[in-house]
Amino acid sequence: MPGSDLHDTFRKYGFIIPVLAGLCLLVNSQSSFADDLAPKEKSADKTDVIVTPQQDGGVHIDEMRQTKCAIIIDDFDEYPSASNWDVHRMSKPENFQIESDVVRDGGHALAITVFGDDELDSEGNLKNELWEARQKRCDFGDEVWYSFSFKIDGTVWPAGSTRWVIGQWKEDSGGSPFLAQRFDNGVFHITVQHNDIRKLVAQAEGSYQQDFKGFSREFQQMLSLDRQGFRNRNDASRTSDEFLGSGLSLPELRKAIETQDTSKFPFLADPQTYSDYPGIQIELSDDPVLPDPTTGWVDMRYRVKGSRVGQGIIEIWANNRFIARVTGYIGNDEFAGNTQYFKFGHYRDYDRDDLQSTVYLDRFRRGPHRSDVD
């Protein structure tokens, strides 16, 4: 019978079935092992769509591969590239030039110039700055190291309460920079900020002393209205004697920094924003006075880690001298994104049309470790 024949066949060859099953399992496992060893195809690079406003009211759109917080090295031997910098904000070539005569290292530097008759932005500011590229931005709260060399040439008037920022670290917000290099009234100084509270960390000495030969012209500047009808709010309340004061002794400087006594720092453009807020602590070195960038190149190094919960730290060196350490609340509680960015150049109030000043930038480094920037 057919059923009997099938039974006889299974009894005769049934032992082969487990053997075949075992072979199948072995082949499958070897195939899986080979798959594990074989190099896997990399997933496509993540890209960012970058929209940059233009002066004519339009926008410029790029798609850039995201290399977030990667090491940046730029000696400016050629014009800044879109891989590291937001070049579409450099819309005026006459304000951004590669310089071969004034250099710190190598053969070139970047020269960023501001002219008094440059077009003002909607808030009445003169603004020519080099921005980090959006696809290279680090997250706020990351520990990031920066080093660069800079100097300033041109017309600098040590009077008139002119706000002048020459380097700043900002969050994705419309707030003030949480760390800034400032040059109000021709004095290089560094500030930190939490929300609306600002603290002076360090300053260069002596450069705000008045040159009497130009005093009559400076007096006119202090009294003048700018072309947009804006007046610096402190001009009327400051006297020339305040800008002629002598420098502070080191103990006096330490005390003035501790208490944020702005009467000891008459160059500050917005003294009402400074506070002895205890949530930001400043520790000065034994030699905390900054070099003067109008007399030569200044080599800066920063360790930067912002924090909205009191865990921030900023350390500052100038010309290989440790200047200061700042700890505590550093940053703005209101923000639009998670990243931070650095920009360098001129961001300042308008004061007069015959202004012409150039800040030179050379040997820029950024990375997550000090060894990346030394």
TrEMBL record:
InterPro entries: Polysacc_lyase (IPR025975). This is Polysaccharide lyase. Residues 1-34 form the signal peptide. Keywords: Lyase, Signal. It comes from the Bacteria. The keyword Phosphoprotein does not apply. GO terms for molecular function: lyase activity.
